[in-house]
Hints:
This protein is of the alpha/beta class and 287 residues long.
Amino acid sequence: AQEFQVLAKERTIQFKAKSKSVVVHTDPKLLRRVLQNFLSNALRYTETGGRVVFAIRTFGPHVRVEIWDTGIGMAKSDIPMIFDEFKRLSEGVATEKKGLGLGLSISKRICDLLKLDLKVHSKPRVGSCFSVSMPIAVGAPQTLSARSRRTSDALGQPLKGRSVMVIDNDTSILDGMQALLGGWGATVHTGATLDDARRLIKQQPDIQVALIDYHLDDDALGIDVIAVLRALRGDLLCAMITADRGEEMLREAKALGATVLHKPLKPAALRSYLTLKLRAMPLPPSA
C-alpha cells in the first residue's frame, strides 16, 4: 500500500493503511494485482480532500482485505455492470486520465480463479468498499500446482512472449492498445504510418501479428499497409480494424488473407482472435 500513499498525497487525499500479519494459501502476484486495481479505482473516483482506507481484518478462520473510499459511489443496480470489460460508469474525477475499463473485469476473473470471495458495497455520493475474503492458512505455506500456475498465467497474460504491431493515426488509440495488449503480456510496437509499419517489420523480426486501422492520415488506407507487410513477411498475421462494412473493402482484405475486425471492437473479441490465431504458432526465439 505504500506506493499508493504517494499518489494519495499528490491528490491531497487522506490515505490510511491498517495492516495485520496473516498467512494465506494463494498466488501473491495475482492477489496483489487485484488489490492494486481496487486501490487505483478508489483514488480515481475520490475527490481532493476525500479518504481512502486499506484494511486487513480477521473473522474467525478467514481474513478480509478491504478498500474503502469516500468517492462518488454507485447505485446497487450498477454494481454487476462494473465487472464487464470496457465498462466504466464514470470518467472519475476531472484530473484523472481515462481508464480502459478493464481493471475490475480482470480482478473478477482472478478472484474466480483463486476462489476469493469478492464483495462490493457502495452508495452514490457516499463512497464504496471493495473487499476480498479467504481462509487463513493452517500450517506452512504451499505453492500453487503446476496446472494452477499455468492457468493463472494464461488468465493474466495470455499473450506472454508474443510481439504485436499496432498501426493507427490516433495516439489515444495507440496508448490504449499499448496498455491493453501489454497487460495481456504482449510486447507492443506502435506506429501511425506506412513508413512506421515498414520500419517496424524490418527492425523487429519477432512481430507475429499486425493490427492495422483502415483509415490513416493523408488518405492512406490500412489495406495498403497490409499489402506491404505481407510482401515483406508472408507469414505475418494481419487484422484490419474498421467501422467500414463495404463489400469492396472486405474483398480486398480477403484477397490479402487479412481478418477484418469491426469497430467498436470489444477486448474479449480481440483477445479471442489473438489467442486463437497464435495458439498454433511457436513463440519467437527471443521469448
